[in-house]
């Protein structure tokens, strides 16, 4: 049982104060729970009342005297109200408030009839009905009537009427006075009991809510602590991977550059016009290019994180840009036996963005696809404008693919899809897809990945409709 709108700081020390709720919704939740908890008990007492109330009609025959007919008539009318209240109480689809009204009506009928019995009963029978009035008030207030304010109103009115009519009660004054004191004590005990019952029920609900809230906060704190721990562990692993990759990816081309340059400087194989040195120059150029690419990737990632990534919007033809990227990537792909092709489903698509940055993103996707595709495989690029006006660039390969749990991980800087020797043999810092995601976010686009191990990977670079069209079209 949880009351999320209950006042979280009740005054527990003040026994004269009824704990309050924050709003009417909290009040309704509290009484709904009270109704659910007490439903069977109240129903049982109601059924007992339906049996005992008419059974006391036999007492009326013996002690009613000349008023027997009147007393039985009152009991019959009250019993009709009691039966009607019972029917309404168990009626399917009833709300807690409707059941409460039914119960109040039944109690009012029985208390009112008992009060009339006291007034009209013969001298020798009055004390029986006064005792019955006390019993009905006790059970009704503590068990059947849930709210203290209703108890106070109903039974307070009953006692006031009872005291005002004391002079007309049958019997001697000693008996009348003792019965009046008895009923006053009963009324006081009833009111105190009703008040304490509701007060303790409210406090229990509030404390239960506080305990649930504390448990929830503790659970959330534990979750946050586990997340922080996992983040720290992941960051530490990323740092370790980064340092390992940096050590390899930067030192390897530097060693090649320094080694071949030193051989040429010392003219190890003769004068510099030796043909063999031409091959060394190519190695130096390739190693320098790789080193330049890795450093550029690191700088681009740093600029993306800091928000200082250079960007200049312009209108260009997407198909022409993709064809230039394919031409640039086909050279390296053909050397390893991979075919890179382009199929424009929507030709002559104008895009308003930074052409060089989108080219960089597409090159990263294509080179990544080529890297993880074996010789004889294919890398297919296509582009199309969707019905919602957005433009999608697709890069599909027939490579090794990746598992579902790695699809999100590869977007993180310095993370790679494969930790085995296959991936390690491919090199790279693991920055390509992270940079693509940053560039896509710069144009309010996104990168989606689909992959299946042993089948291949499909990368979708999606540009929003706001970027499709020329600058003049956007201005219009």
Labels describing this entry:
single chain, alpha+beta, Helix Hairpins, 3 domains, two-stranded antiparallel sheet, 64% helix, 9% strand
Structure characterization notes:
With 476 residues, the chain is an alpha+beta fold. The chain has three domains: 24-220, no CATH class; 239-306, Helix Hairpins (Orthogonal Bundle), CATH 1.10.287.130; 314-475, Histidine kinase-like ATPase, C-terminal domain (Heat Shock Protein 90, 2-Layer Sandwich). The protein has helices at 24-55, 57-63, 68-90, 96-120, 126-144, 148-164, 173-265, 276-306, 318-335, 355-371, 406-409, 421-424, 432-442, 471-475, and strands at 314-317, 339-344, 350-353, 378-385, 391-397, 446-452, 456-463. The longest helix is centred in the middle third of the chain and has 93 residues, at 173-265. The radius of gyration is 44 Å and the shape is rod-shaped. It starts with 23 loop residues before the first helix and ends with a helix. Mean pLDDT is 75; it is low at 1-13 and 420-424.
